[in-house]
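Re-run requested by the PI after the first attempt was lost when the workstation crashed. Everything re-entered from the original request form. Ligand of interest: copper (II) ion.
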Amino acid sequence: MITRSRAVLAAVLVAGLSAIIALPMISDAQTERRTFVTHNGAIVETSGDVLDPLYTPSDVEFDPDEFLRNFEYGRVSVSETGQTVREFTIVARDDLIQEVSPGVFYNVWTFNGTVPGPTLRATEGDLLRIHFFNNGSKAHTIHFHGIHPAGMDGVFEPVGSGGRFLYEFEAGPVGVHPYHCHIMPLEEHITHGLYGMLIVDPKNGRAPADEMVMVLNGLDTDFDGENNFYAANTIPFYYQHHPIQINAGDLVRIYVANMVEFDPINNFHLHGNLYKYYPTGTDVVPSFYTDMITLSQTERGIMEFTYEHPGKYLFHAHKVEFSEKGWTGVFLVRGDGGAGYGS
Ligand SMILES: [Cu+2]
């Protein structure tokens, strides 16, 4: 068993790189950026770990099937005023290594050990207390999209290595809201994986459905400012090789968010069907009935659809480059009766 060692990794950063050049190191307390040259001559820099896939074990076991339908509701209590309180603990790290595709290892920066971080869920008006611990080597924060006081915005309150912060605000508005680290350089902190989703449900709930989360993301594994892989939920081609099983006649609800860096747009195309789409999930009336939405960065929403006919149906980015680099999957629609989620 080879133990991961930064010294070893630094010495052998050869995969895909032809040479390390003696350009001055760019460093400051926060980023410790390193500069090197790729095999095609491009000069790139990163403050992440540069890895040799031949010698790199993986620290992260991420199961996209488990992530898909997992919602975290927090530790629930009731305040003296009768308000529901939901407490979450989120720990940031920036030292984990994940085999993101066979033979491709990447230094992921994580909330609670995975990319994306946990899907948090609350009801409008709940008091959220998010206990944030930064166990990383760099400063990090959590910036939530949504409505909250300025001091809870995770922008001007950097949490240094070893530090902690309590984010406290009321859940709202109803919708789907991404959260992400907001430390500069922002592109780097996001693309390494410090993001997740907060779902705020209406007080009267939602219609029963087979619910799932898809965070659309990209991986820049060679630090050149372009993504080498794309995915729904991090692992390229995962849901193509492991089709998502749903039932004909069941209402399916997908909470989707686009967290792809570097590329200005992403999209979601569904085969053999159309879906109702609720941008940002803030309205109870769908804005579109379509098989194709386009999302800029952090755009998100709710998709709802029901398949009538059993079989295999593709879903993917209609930006073909993205689908050919991993952002594609399959719904396997079973026709033998479902869980009874009526539409
Ligand atoms: Cu960060």
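Saved to the shared folder this time. Residues 140, 181, 183, 189, 194 surround copper (II) ion (CB under 6 Å).
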